[in-house]
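General statements about sequence and structure are easier to judge against a single worked case. In the encoding step, the backbone of a single protein was reduced to a row of integers, each denoting a local shape. The record that follows shows the chain in one-letter code together with its fold in token form.
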Amino acid sequence: MIVGGQDIQPSTRRSMTQPTCQYFLLKNPHEPTVIPLSFFITILSTAINFLGFYVILYKSKKETKLFKFTLFGNLFTLWLSQGFWAITMNTMPLFPFPALFSSSLFNNILSTHSVFRIWIVLLSFFAVFLVGQLIVRHRMVVRAESFFNVSSCSNRIMKLYKLQFPNWFYIVVVAGGWSSITPFLLAVWSYCDTPELEKIEFVQQNFPGCSEVFNLPGVLIITNVNALYALLGLMALTGIAAEGVYIISSVLMLFELSKQTRKMSNNNFNHQRKVVVDTTIQIVIKSTFISTWAFWAVISYFMSPQSDTRIVSTTINCLFVFAPIPGTVSMIFLNSTYRKFVAENVLRRKRSNVSPSRYALPMQADLKSQFF
């Protein structure tokens, strides 16, 4: 073919008629270091969290069995969900191209859509134990006559019927909330997956020249982007609301403790106040790491298609998988009993048995008695 007096080769002719893909991540998938880094973090997380499991079960002397159960479930479910993510998923967005890409050894066996559904269920169990921990701590601290005591309020409101909220009532409420929110999130997520033919037509119409995306293992092309952002928005709102409720409840519990200074011993009061503050710190730390993935998914949507975000995505994925570690470490560090056990049995740091006063210089009065 001759154009403008020049002969155009067939390959050049095809490039003129066929647009090229402008999305960098489709031609250069994520770094191969994602899988080994995730495995290393998971092994480290397993060692630290199993230490946390041990001290909760065998070294908690001042806590009730119910509180230890909720605390153990909190740590275990977060470790399980993030470990599942590291081994079978490592899913990161290819945005602004509407797709998710998984880097794992099971890409040819498990679909990204299926494993993401399982991960949502696992993380929802973490939320259940988190709420359970809040309820148990709330009931231990709040005064019987307080306005914030649900049982007390129920007695006042339903005085004619002489009803009171028993323990099973809270179990029903938590289970009902879980069975309502989790299926709703899964239903929204189901709209993110479509038949293969529909995905091909979607890419051909909206992203011509990007057909190579189908060659990537573990890729999930999302034709309904609104469903994905609805899911991320719901998860973010649920997390923010839960954290807000937790912080408000912690403030109320501290307020309730301040009203019981005359009824409690100093040791009991200081212990209860410290547990409330320490638990709040642990939740804030965990939620900060867990929220990194959702925030990056939103931010990456506004990135340039030519941007190389592989290093940032790898870092975000590592922080996300890392989430169980700082919460467990802070729990051990803030608890004097746990900290002492780790220092003496893991770090092998024994306290000196020598009394400092034994070798101290004599007081001025002792000096006078020696010479006069």
Notes: The radius of gyration is 28 Å.
